[in-house]
Amino acid sequence: MSVSSGGSSAGLSTTSSRESAVQHLNKRAKAKDGGDEDEDLLEEKRSFQEFCYYCMDTLSAEKAFTVDWRINLPKIVLEGLTGFLVVFNPLVQGWDIDYNLWFWQIISWSTYHSAVAINRDYNVYTNVMYLHVAVVGLLLAGLALLALTVNKVQKSKELKKWVKVLHFCMDVVFTVGFMTIFSVFTFMFNCDFQANNNGGTNMHLHFRDVDCSEVPHLVHMIVGGIFALILGILACIMAIADTEHNPISRTWLASPSTETRMKIVVAKMVIVVCAVGINETRRAPTIIVWLAALYTWWLYFRQMPFYNTWVNISISSMWLGIAFTASLLMVLSWDHRNGDPDFHYWMTWNVLKGIFPVMVGGACCHYAFIWYKMYWTRKFVDPPPNLPLRKIFKFEYPEDVEIMSRAMRKFDRDGVVDPQAVELGDTILRAGMQYFPKCPGLLVLYASMLLEVKHDGPLTRTQLQNAMKLRPDILDKYRIFVIAQRAKRMKDAADGTMDLQSYVEFKRNYRMLARVHKEALQNQRDFWKLFMHSKTQESNVKKALKDLEASSSRAQMVYSKIMERYPNNGKLLKCYGKFLEEVKNDIGGATKYYSEGNRLGSTDAIMNMDFDLAGRKKMDFLVSMDLHEDAVVIIDAVGTILMISQGTTAMFGYSKIELENANVSMLMPQPFSQRHPSYLQRYTSTGDPHILDKVQEVVALHKEKFVFPTELGVTKLSGSGSDSVFLGVLKAMPVSMETVRVWVAPNGVVLCADQQFSGLMGYPSEALVGTSIFSLLEDPSAGEAFNEQCKAASPEDFAQQRIKTTGRFVGKYLPPVPCSVTVKLGGTQTERIFVWNVKRNDKNDEMTMVCDTHGTITFATWDMAALLGMSTRKLVGTKLDTLLPPPYNSMHAKWLQETPSVIPSSSCRAGVVVQLLNSSHVLVPVRIKVHQMEDQGRTLHVVRVTRAAPNALVEEKRVSLTCNLNGTIEEIEPAESQLFGWPAMEMKGRHVADVVDTFATWRQKIADQYFGGDVERCIVETGTGGVKLLLLAFMDQEYARPGGSYRVSVKPPDTDFATAIAAAQNTQHQVSPLLGY
């Protein structure tokens, strides 16, 4: 996944051609006075979805009063009070409320639709509703205006203030006052719409003289319904926009749970709609109100949408009180005493007397629930090193991971987050990602933690890319967009950390800057050219002056924006000084910026680089480079690394700091690293290119000192001679399991070898350097003759792959391996290097690992290390017991010291399937073969490993017997099995009762009962010894309960069971495996 750069906070136009710039300027010239431009140069083209995300992010970024308790505390109180008064007010039929009480007169105005409806007439209420329509309409217009000016918000302090006011107003209307305003609109539908034969009158239930089926009330209902729907949609949008992406935010109402808050908005809408429709005859809505209130409480209780614990407890307890009130309303409506004034009075007082104890009890329960959830976080403190993270704790839902990760929200006295708490939260999130590997929301949450807490921009972008691969929903896509924007801003704001990818973006912005600068100069030239004529019209002068001022203002705005992002770029400061001098005529300001630019300095070769490779007709290899996957390296004329891409660090294992300003030869093995400076010197002196704009197969040197094949394409970006700057793109080549490579000098000395060849030979790559290739062959003389053939061959012979031979390579740990060798030409014609491409002819895919008698691994092939998820250097030196699951890790040391004279069939030395632990503590089934050898006076165990199928371990512990109804064993699979310590084929043709104790016992029982214990007579007379009945019984049982199994004992056919069991115990064999039917 790649996050679109179109969403950057200051995403600048990427138009690279002069024609498109001219077309844009022509459009500007045709625009009416002050008219909006068709395209803003400061923004890249976005999709409609990204544009909506950008608008929402801009609106949310200008929050006001997020920390002030004097604003947030009333919002929390009103959250519960408005919900309570929607359910408990005089307009809801059933409550006995004295509206004249002074206390009620005060609090009722929090849901003022009831106060207006009771104290005023229908016309006043209608006017109030249309006032709210106007307010919602104005906020909609504000959103539309924000969409039109969103690209200019970051450039204008006045616009920022306006957006802050807009956000505050929308927060009041769509969050704090949502239920109240929604009630104003829906109250218009409080009509008696029942059929006339059921007593329906179509009259409004409160304004009794208003007919709901006639104009104008019908129009009022339509308008109210439309704006109620708009209000609900905008409330959901506000819930999305105000999602908090910083897991350590200290604001009161910071909430990461977008989906939960949207569900709460919908539940509130249901409560309001149903509460309006409750009267004496319509009682069903009371059930819906109760269920919706209970569901809202459950969301606050279980999901805990806010980061602040006390905010969650307060609001959840208030909604429990609302659910309690709704439950009493439901009882009041459905009880047979409904209509009795005393009963209504009693139920009303029950609400007032019971709601506060219910809220206190709910708060205590919620606090205990939160304590219980956070209690389990201690399991993630110093977890066992061999235990996979996903097995530490069993999460119920992905939301539990986010809740438990709030353990990182531990601050010191100064408000700084505790580093140990951060690591605890990191561990919990990683465990959750392993437990729910298909959940993109957790990857997004982890990315936000990496960005806001650990300030790790590159790793944040990696997690966001992984999240996009899991097809996130629209809510997660918004979060990905916002976090990517913040990561981009963090990267741009960092001093001295511009990598290749951000520099490419800088060059795009710089080209756009050059266009607007040039436009201002052209308009200035056109203005002064008018005065070169003897006569000129005043209108032309005014128009030219207006164009000059507009282009100058635009250039000033673009300079300000880009300099805000790159404040320490020396070249940019000098360009701005030139703008002040040539366009603004500000000599003093220009001098200031010239001196600052000279002080910061810049590398002219880098600043003049042109990355428009596609426009320069470069080869596809360079044009198609991926800055995330490919290693892109920019060097100067002496080989100093100026810049690298993100993929370079991943491919070579070095950090960015280690590579930049180092020499590129550190990425090459000998002798190429030694010769590379002379190649550069030859080009700068003669200008004769040998590898420029060509794709070559080369070898690269990893930080861990192993070489690997890559494809290399090099081009010159700028400069000449000693000022040249080159760009190289390296793309990893797929590793071949059969073909290995070794680079040989004409005298037969090994210059370098890849990991596959070193594994074949049993030596580390560095140990092979300087060795004669002939010493590695079974027939050295044949190797010398083949080398003479290589030296005499022409380049065409190598190109057409005519130079080839066959032979046997002799490794340190393996028997001679038959191979085919095809030689390619490396180096140059004057300094030849022979690339031996060695292909195994035995089709053997075994991996090798060697350990000593102490269990220390002394050698391992690269594919063995890859199987275990480690590097070769890390695996070598590791103790063997760390690769074995318990209990074998503690039992194995004895067998390394003492090799048994007789190898049991169940031993790993017998070639059976075993399981190894990889670096993630996941069991990997493999089949191994072990043999011993002596090396310089020490005993070594050579382990040859082949990856086994996932079910191979089970299959190897099972023998299938096929017998007829008479009990005669006809087939055995696998026939060569030695599972029981003796050849399984010995059972073929024998009776099943001769080898399995269950059948033998049954046969003996039949013989004792009917034949006086004579088994032979039983067999002769019955033909099956009674076993047929038992087999049929097993078959019936299988039909009734498929997959059943029985524990039985197995013995050789000519041995009694007591003897077999004793022998098995002496030889430590298991003689009673599970035999399934």
From TrEMBL:
The chain crosses the membrane at residues 76-95, 129-150, 162-189, 218-241, 284-301, 313-334, 354-372. Gene3D superfamilies: PAS domain. It comes from the Eukaryota. Coiled coil: none annotated. SMART domains: PAS. Residues 1-20 have a biased composition (Low complexity). InterPro entries: PAS (IPR000014), PAS-like_dom_sf (IPR035965), Tiny_macrocysts_regulators (IPR052994), TPR_TmcB/C (IPR057352). Keywords: Chromophore, Membrane, Photoreceptor protein, Receptor, Sensory transduction, Transmembrane, Transmembrane helix. Residues 1-38 are annotated as: Disordered. Residues 630-670 form the PAS domain. This is PAS domain-containing protein. It comes from Dunaliella salina (Green alga). The lineage of its organism: Eukaryota, Viridiplantae, Chlorophyta, core chlorophytes, Chlorophyceae.
